[in-house]
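Just curious: can you write whichever protein you like plus the matching C-alpha cells?

***
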Amino acid sequence: METLRLVYQTAKVRLGFLIMACALAGLAVSPGAGLEAWQVLVLGLATLASSSAAGAFNQLWERDLDRDMRRTSQRAFVTGRFAGGFAWYAGIALVTLFSCVAAALATNLAAAIYIFLGAFTYGVVYTVWLKRRTWLNIVIGGAAGSFAVMAGAAAVNAEFEPAPLILTVVLFLWTPPHFWALAFACRKDYAAAGVPMLPVVVSEALSTRTILAHAVVLVLLSLVPGWYGMGPIYLVSAAAGGAYFIRESWRLVVKPGIPQAWRTFAASIVQLGLLLTGAIFDDLILG
C-alpha cells in the first residue's frame, strides 16, 4: 500500500484526473454524434495515464530542484524511496505510448496526437526546456491542459468548433494564474531553487494584478459557450466558480500575502472543477 501511495503521489494522479476531466469536457461541449460508453472510458483513461506519466517524469527530472524546496523535499525521488533510473524512463515512455495507441484505436489518430502533445508539453516543453529558464514557463506549459480539451473534441471530429475552441483558450488562460498563486505562496522556495516564476521576478503588485487580469479574462471567456449551445447547468457552474476565483484574486491584490495566495490557488481549482463538471453534466442531463 505504501508503494501504491508513493506511485500515486509521484505520478501526480490527482492532476491527471483534472486533465482527464478536461478531455471529457472537451467532448461534452462538442456538437455532433457522441461516442459509445467504452470509447469515452478509453479516452478518459488514456488521458489520465499519459498525464500521470508526464507527472512522474516531471518529478524524476526535477529531483534536484525538489531537494531545495520545502514543499517538495519529501518527494520519493528526493528521499531515495524511489531510485530514478532507466526503468522509470522506460516505464514512462511505455505508458505514454500505450495511452496514445489506445486512444487512437478507440477514437481516432487526431485525439491520440493531442493526448501525446499534452504529455509532451508538460513533460518536456515545460519541465525540461522552460521551467528553469524563463517566467513564461507556465504560460507556454499551460497548453498541456488545452491539448486535453482538444483531444476530447477531436474524438468526435469537432476540435475546430467554437465551443471546444473557446474552452481550449480558457484552459490556456487558467493555468498561469493557478500556478502563479502557488508560486506567490512559495516564493522563497522558488527563489532558493532558482526557478523564475512570475512572483519571484516581479513585484507583488504586478504579479497579483496579473493573476487578477487573467482570472477576469478567462472567466468572461468561459461564459461565451452559452452562445454556442451550452445550457444553464454549464453557465451557472461557470459563473459561480468564476465569481469565486475573481473575488479571491481581487483579495490577493488588496492584501497580498501567503494565506491569501493559498486561498486564491484553491479558488482556481474550484473554478475549473465547477466549469468542467458543469460542462459534463450539462451534456449528460440536457444534451
